[in-house]
User: Fold these one by one.
Assistant:
Number 1:
Amino acid sequence: MMKTAISRSFGFIVKVQAVLSATLVLCLMVLVGLDVSLKYLYSHPIEGTLELTSEYLMPVSVLLGFAYAERRRGHINVDLLFRFFPAKAQQVLDRIIHLVTAAFLAVMAYSFYLRALYYTGTNAYIDLISYDLVTWPARWLATFSLATFALQMLCSFATGRAGNENG
C-alpha cells in the first residue's frame, strides 16, 4: 500500500517533468522560429536567443524528459547478446544495469549540485547587450532532473523491470 502511494507520487513528479520538458521544447520552437523570421524579414533578431536556447531550453528540456522515458521504457536497449541469456539471467543483469546506472546518475547529480552551488554563489550570468541572463537556475533544474532520473532507475531496480508501461 505504502509502496504504491510512493510510486504514484513519484510518478506524478515524473509526469510534471515530462510536461515541463514538452513545454520547453514548444517554447524553443516558437522562439527560434520568431528569431529567424524577425532576422530575415526585418533584420532585427531577438537578442539572447542563442544563449537562452543553449543555456536553458535545450539542456533542461532533454534532462527533464529522461526520467519519464525510463518510466515508459522509452530508452534504447541494445540486446544483441542479452536476448540469448536465460530469463533469470536477464532479470539479474537488468537489475544490475539499473543499479549501476542509478549510482552513476547519483554521482552526476552530486557533481551538478556542486556546480550549481558554485554558480549560484557567484551569481553566474551571460552579459548581453540589453540585459544580463542569469545561468545558475538552469544548473539547479539539471541537478533536479538527474536526481529524479536516478530515483526512477532505483524504482525500476526495485520493481525488477525496465519501467512502468502505464507511466
Number 2:
Amino acid sequence: MLPAATTVGWSDDWMWGLALIALSVVTHAAGLALIGVGLARVVGSMIETPSHAHRRLVLFSVASVLLAMLHGVEASYWAAAYVWLGAATDFRRAIYFSLQMVTTLGADVVLLEDRWKLMGPLEAISGMLLFGLSTAFLLAVMQRVWPFPQVMQARHPADPR
C-alpha cells in the first residue's frame, strides 16, 4: 500500500489525465480521418492494377510515418502539460518521459514530481488506446490498398472463392 502522502492530490492527476486522454483520442480520431481522406484520394486505380505493388508499399509507409507523427503530437500534449504543471523541469525531459509512457515502455531515468506520479500510468492507458486505433487503421489501409483475397485468387485461379 502507498503511504498516504503519495496519494494527496491524485484528484488533480485524474482530472488532468482524463482530460488529456480525451484530447489525445479526439486528436487521434481527427488525424486518422484526415490521413484516411488523403490516402483515399491517392489510392484511386492502384487497387485494380497489380503492377503498382511498390506504390502500395510507399503508401503504407507514408501512412505509418503520418501515424508516428500523430503519436508524437499527442505525446507533446502530455509533455507540455507536465512542464506547465511543474511535474517536469523542462520540455526535453517531459517529452522523453511522455514517449516512454505513451509506448508503455516505462520510465527509466526521467521521472515526474511525486505529486504528479499518477499521470504516467494514465498516459500509458492513453497510449494503449491510441496504438489500438492506429493498428486498426493500418489494418484497414492494408485491406484497402492490398486486398489479400484478390492476391490469393491471382495465385490460385482454380480456387472457387
Number 3:
Amino acid sequence: MNDRTPFVCVPYLPLHKAYKIGPWLLVPASMYSGEWLDTTYKERAEQLLNHFVWVNGETIKDIPIIISAENGADGVVPTEAEGRALQLAIDIGSIDQAMSFTGDKSQRIVTTDSTELQIWPLSADGFVAYPTGLMMRTTHGGWNVKRDDWYVPCPLDVYRPIMGTTLDDRLATAVYETVLKGDIDEANITERRIGIALGWWSKAWRNSVSVSWEDRIVLLKTGFEALLHDSSSYTAAKRLKLLFESAAAQSEEDITGLLWVPGETESRLHPFATTEPKFAGVLVTDLVHWFLSFAATRNKIIHDGAAKSLVYDEEGSAYNGYYVFTAERLMREALKIQLELLGHKGLWKTGLARTMGNIKQTGAKFHDI
C-alpha cells in the first residue's frame, strides 16, 4: 500500500447485509471476504475499525465499509462528485426504508448523523490523521491503529436504533446515478435539482438540537423550491400537484401508499381566501392547501421570527400533523415520483411492497427473497 491510502467506512450505520449502490458495495466488514489491495492495507483497515466505539464505550461491530463492487477493497475511493452522490444515496436509501416500515419506526430509524461517510487515510506504519470541520478545519492525528490506548467516540447526536437497519438499494442506486449525472453536466437540470433538493432534505434530518423545528421547516421548503424550480408558493404548489399527476398518468400500475392520492379534487377553500381578496372563493386540492399553508408558516418564521403553530390541522386531510414530518415525507415521495418520470420505475413503492411483489411474480418463498 502507498503511504496514506484512503479507506472509507460508515461507522454508525448498523447494517447486517451487503448492498450494491451503483459501482460501489456497502458491506459490513465482517461479511466481506473479497480481495484487498494487499495484506497490510487489510490489516490496517481492520485495526482502525476496532477503535470505533458507541457513546457507552462499547466497540462498534460490523461497521459497513465502502469498496468497489468490481475490484474489492483496492484502496480506490469515490471522487468528490461520486462521494456526494453516494452520501445522498445512503441517506435517503436508509431513512426512506426505515420510515416506510410498518410498526414502531423508532426501533429502526437512523438520522443523517448515522449515515455520514468517513474517509480515513491509512499508512503502512499504522499512523492515521483524520480531518474534521469546515469553517474551522481540525486534523486529529498522532494515532496509530496498532495501539489500543485511543478510540474514536461516537458523536452524542447519533441515535443507535434497537434493531438493525436496512437500505433500499434500488432507490439508493437511482439516486446515486441521478445526482452524479447532474454533477457531471449542467445541462441535466432536473438531475441537478434533485441533488440540490436532497441536500436540503438531508440537512433537515440531522439530529442536533442546534437545528430547531423552525430551521427544518425552512430547510425543507428550500428543498421544495429546488425540486420544483420555483419559489412562488402558489406556482410551486401547482407544480407539485402536476408532478404527482404526471407520474400517475405515465406509470404502468396504480400508484398507491403515498400521502397524495390520485383523484384529489379541488374541494378545499384556498387558505388565504379570507385574507387576500384575489383568492376569495378559490378551491384547491388537499395537497395544494397543505403546501400553501406550509409555505405561509415558513414565511412567518423568516419574516416574523416565529409562527403561531408548526402543526397542520384541517378536517379530513391526510396531510395533518407536524409540518416537518409531513414535509420530509412528501419530499421523499416527490423525489421518488420525479425519479419515476426519469425512468426509474416503481421506486414509490416501499421495500416491503416490492419484496411481496417479487414473491407473487416469481412464486418464491418469503425467506428466499
